[in-house]
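Supplementary Text 2. Reproducibility record for the structural model of the 448-residue chain.

All settings were left at their defaults, and a single model was retained for analysis rather than an ensemble. We include the record here because the model underlies the residue-level annotations in Supplementary Table 4.
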Amino acid sequence: MSRTILLLLAATVMAGPGGAQRPSLPNFDRRTPIVLAVENVGPAVVNIRTQDAVRRTGGFDIFQRFDRRKIEQDPRTGLQFSDRSLGSGVIVHEAGYIITNEHVIAGADRIKVRLRTGELKLAKVLNSNRDNDIAVLKLADKGPYPTAILGNSDQLLIGEVTMALGNPFGLSNSVTDGILSASGRSVRFRGREVFSDFLQTSATINPGNSGGPLLDVNGRVIGINVAIDKRGPGIGYAIPINRVKEVITTLTDPEMTRQAWLGLETARKRDALVISRIMDPGPAEAAGLRVGDRILSVASRPVETPFEFNVVMMDATPGASVPFRVSRNGRTVDRAVRFTTLPLESLFAHNARADILGMNLANLTNAAAARLHIPSHLIGPVVLNVKTESAAEKIELQRGDVIIEVGRVATPTVNRLREVLGYYRRRGSARIKVYRENEGELQGTIVF
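Retained model, structure tokens:
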């Protein structure tokens, strides 16, 4: 009797309305290419939190009355910081090198990076490029870290699937998908073109996505998310990854970051890293390296791209010899190249210099700004030499000073400095403001 009741109950559960049999649902594979791509790249996507140092005036916290942002104290230094912005980034080298947008980290006093695992790490800005809105960060700890694979934005197909990964509004590990709507887009702001050659995607991009990767269906990074069009939904922009590759290679060049050189340039040719140029004279030429040599390893570490080559040189000590192993005409050749410190004059073309008031000057370059640790918002001619008994020497201007202002007029170039000094020469004197490494902004009066 009990067995009959159980069978009737089972039949009732399996039967639908009117006693009809419930149809079985299909069991599709939910691990689509999008799921696989996100699983592969997700661990390399990071949350970037920038902070301002809390500055005090008269013993009171200037944020206390006007800002309700959370204040955080560094237990090691006792300094206090407040959050200022959120963004995203992607790790592109296992040693902890991160790509993000320059506008994400611009002006930050401290940068904290949260990994997919939840770990929080400090990072520093290795270098940045405002014109291309790209920055390279370096995590404080060596790693190894999970990395993303960079694709080829010159081989994209309009209409192919794209995915935007990042941390919109601080919501970690968010994923949206869409298609590649267009390439080569120009973006205008207030009537002028501010960016060109963007990728356009229908994958939703929101505040906080900036600096995160745009992926293809295979999980390769094809762009760095940068902006949205507020005129309507589904219009997002990303910087093509091939342009990003060029920029980060320049930003990590030892001549800019270490102010040292090997006297050679590299390039990718036929899936190999080769020496494309040798400076004569120079350290590489003296060591016996040649144009066309295929680089197998540097400092006993294999390298396949100019960016990887630059990363290896980050660990090299200026003045030391760096082992090279190259392939030449089918045979392996070992050489040692001295990593030589660059003199300041070498960062400027000889025909780009000018003599004014006993100073030899040149316009500030990115390499010189990095060498002299000039803040990104300052620009002006660099003093290369000061003549004895000149007006410049009398106010103790020094080699390496950057002249940023004369008489409260900005002097971004040598030509502008000459014009402004010509105006004040008729007055007999002028206030001059310079930036000096390790001392900051200084002022004095130059007498003509």
